[in-house]
Amino acid sequence: MLIRSTRFGEIEVPEDSKIHFPHGLPGFPQEQEFAYLPSEPDNPFAFLQSLAEPDLTFIVVDPFAFFQDYEFVLGDQIECELELNDANRPHIFNIVRVPDNPEEMTVNLLAPVIVNTKKRIAIQMVLEKTIYTTRHRLFPNGFVKQPGKGGK
Amino acid sequence: MLALTRKAGERIVIDDNIVITIVDIKGENIRLAIEAPREIKIYRGELYDAIVAENRQAAVPAKDGILDVLKDIKVRKP
């Protein structure tokens, strides 16, 4: 599948990179088709590239690489709609915001993206009654310190 | 926009499949019960606004250098 991205140019990606968001994303209700573009192995970051809008790319991250204790309840509605169960566990990632100083980048732990990797459908859910916020620093000590030890 | 006045215990029916019941009114707080199909997403307004704002900011193109920064990050899974 050939996709067009302002950030990456025209690139060929596997067909199963495609993820369908039936509700779009909050703030982007029309954007329902994305490609999930992972980085190198061992790198927790990835990109979510809109297939309709080359300008729209989100940086996303595996939350568990930075917040080992991150946890929440999916709830029956999400499980049913995404057809998830014990035999079909979701893939979870969170959207990263990169400010002018990249060391201050934050991740939105309040609204994780839940993916059914078999059907390639996903929802960005909003957690209820949670300690998490829209902005958790990924590198509270900046880049110089050991990455991955951050969090809290 | 439609504005309706309701009392506790009364309902509002939207389309054929959404029912909002005024469960209780105590001072400034109104408790609602919402019955809707599961594909209808229901959020607290301020929470939804926060996610919209955060997504929009996250969508702002980051500086080119960020790709190199992210590329060098390796995190071993626990």
TrEMBL record, chain B:
Principal localisation: cytoplasm
Leader sequence residues: none
Places the protein is found: Cytoplasm
The organism's place on the tree of life at top rank: Bacteria
InterPro entries noted in UniProt: CsrA, CsrA_sf
Keywords carried by this UniProt record: Bacterial flagellum biogenesis, Cytoplasm, Repressor, RNA-binding, Translation regulation
Pfam families: CsrA
SUPFAM superfamilies assigned: CsrA-like (SSF117130)
Subunit comment: Homodimer; the beta-strands of each monomer intercalate to form a hydrophobic core, while the alpha-helices form wings that extend away from the core.
NCBIfam families in the cross-refs: csrA, PRK01712.1
Family stated for the protein in its record: Belongs to the CsrA/RsmA family.
Function noted in UniProt: A translational regulator that binds mRNA to regulate translation initiation and/or mRNA stability. Usually binds in the 5'-UTR at or near the Shine-Dalgarno sequence preventing ribosome-binding, thus repressing translation. Its main target seems to be the major flagellin gene, while its function is anatagonized by FliW.
HAMAP family, sorted: CsrA (MF_00167)
Listed name of the protein: Translational regulator CsrA
Organism: Sporomusa silvacetica DSM 10669
